Structures are given as C-alpha cells and as structure tokens.
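Feature request, filed as a ticket because there's no other form

It would be nice if the structure record came with a short human-readable summary line next to the tokens. Right now we just get the raw output. Example of a typical job, pasted below so the devs can see what we mean:
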Amino acid sequence: MNQNDTNFYGINFEKIADTIIRLGVLFLLIGWCYDILKPFVLIIVWAVVIAIAFSPVYERVVRLFKGRKVLATIFVALILLIILVAPSILITQSLYEEINNFAHYYQTNEHLIPPPPETTKSWPTITKPIVEIWSSASEDLSKVALKYTDQIKIAGAWLLLSLAGIGKGILQFIVSIIIAMGLLLYSESLIKVSKNIFIKLIGSNGEHYAEVTVITIRNVVKGFLGVALIQATMIGVGFFLAGVPFAGIFTIICLFLAIIQVGIGPIAIPVVIYMYSVTDATTSTLLAVWVGITLISDNILKPIFLGRGNPPAPMLVIFLGAIGGFIYNGFIGLFLGAVILTLGYKFFLSWIDMEDDEPKIEELQTEGLQIDTEE
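Raw output as currently delivered:
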C-alpha cells in the first residue's frame, strides 16, 4: 500500500514538474515574442483598427477594380497616404514660415504683435490682465519675454515635445496604413482566424464578441474620429485662407479638442476675435461664418455617420480614452485610446447582459450600431 502511494505521488510529482516546465517555457517564449514586438504593438493595433474601419470601402474599391485586389489595395493605400501626408506637409511648412517670421521680427525689433484695438476697453474686467500683457507685448516683446521667462521655457519645452510626438505619430500612421493594406489584401483568411481566436478565448459567444469588436471600431472611427478629422480639416482650410498666424498649430489643437469631444470653439472663436482686430472686416466676417458652419457640422455629421439611436459609448468614455491614450502613447494614442476604451466599455456591457443563449447581432442595431450586411 505504501509502495503504491509512493509510486502515485512520484507520478503526480513528475506530471506537475513536467507541466510547470512546459508552462515556464511557454511564458518565456510569449514574453520574448512580446519584447521583440513591443516597439510595433501600437502600430500593429492601429493597423488592425484601420483595416476593420476601411474594409467596407476597400470591398467597394475591389468591385470597382473588377476583383483585382492588388490594384485596389495600392489605390486605397495611396489615397490614405495622400490624405495623411498632404496636410502634414502644409502644416509643417506653415510652422516653419511662422517661426522664421517670428525670429526675423524679434531680431529687427519690429512689431510682431499688433496693439490691442480700442474695442478692448469695453471688454469685461476679467480680461484686463490679458489686455495688459497684449499691450506690453506689442510695445516691447523682449520685456514680456524676460518677465515670463520660466513660463515661456516650460511652454516651449512642452511645445517642442508635442511637435516631436506628432512627427513620430505621423510616421507611425504611415507604417500602420501600409500594414493595414496588407491585412486587407488577405482579409478573407484573417477573418476566419480572428473568429477562431475569439471562440478559443471566450467560447461559444466568441463570434458575438468578434462582431461587437468590428461594429464598435467602425462606429468610433466614423462617428468620432472621422468627424473630428473633417472638422479639423475645415477649420484648418479656413485658418490658412484667412492668413491666421500659426495656423498649423491652431489646426492641430483644434483636432485634439475635436477628438476629446470638447469641440473647436475654445480655439476658433478667440482666433476670429483676434482676426477682427488685425485684419479687414470682410476677411474676418467670412472666417467667422466658416467657423460657425464648422461648429454646426458636428450636429449634422454625427447622425449621418452613427445613424439613429445612441452613440457607441458615452462622451466621457471617448474623452478619457483620448486623453489617457495621448498621455500614455503620444499622438497615435489620441486616436487609439478612444477606440480601445470604447471597445472595453462595449465588452463590459455585453458581458453584463450576456445570457445563456448566444445573443443576436440585431440587438446591437437598437443601440445605434450598424452592421455592414455586405460582409
């Protein structure tokens, strides 16, 4: 009896030791693979998001090219790269010219900042410190710079880091678009693999969660990120045509505010007020009208892209996702954070509402989520 017990415990110990060694080797391999891919994780995840969001458009382009996927892939990639690179070049060129002008005016002691107009005397008392700084800067910018040296250093360092992060983010976007096009080219086999992964991880409801993932990503990209990009483009065009100083920086800030759902108003409205004080009334009025149209467009575009019903997530989720993503992952995190946090929010709600029977995808449509029936 004792001999049998000894053999039994010996066999169990061997099995346990064998399992621990196998798990150790597996975790080592997984950790090693993660370390290798760590520099590319954000790029790959964003590439997956782009591929999912643009797959309906890609399928239409494939039909337009009569099934020639390679040509369709190259065409879509070129369009996306042009949309990304062309505004980036214009904004960079604008920043370079404005910085050169700033340096020139500062060195020659010319008036870089125009004096505040007479209308500022009737402004509320709370704006008095701003008007005083404005007036001092218009008379002698160097004195103001010396007075606020510490604040300018902090703001300048933050601005340089932000611009560097934006440059890095644009490069990551370009690589993500290229990878996304490769994913779309082999989308049929990848769809099967992704569904199998969800089923393996979650079980019988895996296919449901795969559909939730696709629907949520498309709605967030279209309804929030897409609208923010359109608004930023509209306001940027207005700034450039009106000759607004540092139009590139203001456009980027407007894009940031639009993504976090604050809106472009906090930047666009002061810019319009400033333009009334430094340029002719016609240009300023046209800019004001264009800013008004851009502000209203948010209420028109979101219902079109999201459809009727509730948005895929509360504004607070989008706000926290965009801000947290930007702080944690930089410029690309501004876009990706909103998608990932919204996806987690939808998974959490689906898990709470999950029943024994597999949920029907049609139920998601009542929440304002639209399914591409062509897939």
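Something like this underneath would help us a lot:
Residues 356-362, 364-375 have pLDDT under 50 and may be disordered.
The radius of gyration is 27 Å.
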